[in-house]
Design brief:
By secondary structure, the protein is α/β, with parallel strands linked by helices. The chain has 11 helices and 15 strands. The structure holds magnesium ion. Residues 9, 11-13, 212-214, 235 line the site of magnesium ion.
Length: 264
Amino acid sequence: MMYDVALVDLDGVVWLGSRIIEENVKGLQKLAEAGVRLVYVTNNSTRARSYYSRRLEKIGLPADPSSVVTSAVAAAAWIAERKPGALVYPLGEEGMVHELSQAGLIPVTRDAARRGEADAVVVGLDRNLTYAKLDAALRAVLAGALFVAANEDHVIPVEDGLSPGAGAVVAALERALGRRPDFVAGKPNPWMVEVARRQAGIPQGARLIVIGDRVDTDAEMARRAGIDCLVVGTGVASLDEAREKATYTARNVLEALEFIVGRR
Ligand SMILES: [Mg+2]
C-alpha cells in the first residue's frame, strides 16, 4: 500500500454545493475498499462535524465525526490550548458556534462582544454577515480579544460558480483593524493536519496523502506538512495551475487510483 490515510477535502472534491461529484465519490469508495482510511479535512466552517458525517454517510462514504475536521474545529482547538474556557465571539454560522462549545469554549453574544467581553473573536464564512456583527468583532479585538480566522479562502465553489469565502469576511475586519489576524487555523496551515492526526488518532508513521481541488490551500498545506498531494480538476484549480505544486494531478479521484493504491 502506498498511502495509509487520505486527508480529503470536501467542497470541490466530494460535492459542489448541493451537487455530488460522482466520479470522486466512486474513487474514494474504491480507496476505502483498498484499505486507505479516509479523513475529511475542510476549511468550511459553516457546519458541524456531525452534519458532514451524516451527509457523507448518505452518499455512501461512511465517516464518524472524529474523521471530520473543519477550520472551526482547528480554530477552537488552538484557542482552547491557550485559553481554556475562553469567551469567544463567533463571526460565523451555527457549525462554528457548535464546535466552539464542543471545545469547552463559551460563545458570547454580539452585544457582549461589542462591550469588550470576549477573549477571542473567530471569523469564518458568515452568509448572514451584517455591519453590526463586523462592528462587534472590531470592538472586541480593539478591547484586547484575540483575532482568529477560521480560514482565508477567497471564494467557495458552489453549483453555479463561485461565491465569496471566509477570506472576504476576514479581509473586512483586517482592513478595519489595520493588522493581520493573530492566527489563521485552516488550510494551508499544517495545523489542520496536526488536529486531524490527534482527533482521528492517526499513528505517527502513517503515510498520508492530501486530496483536494486547490493549490493555495490543499497543495500548499501538504507542502508545509511534508506530505504528498493529489489535486483534482473538479473544483477551483485548473490542472495546469496544479501541475507545478501538486505531487499528482488528475481530472478526478477515479482517474488517480493508480497513483494512490496501484503500486502495492
Ligand atoms: Mg475545496
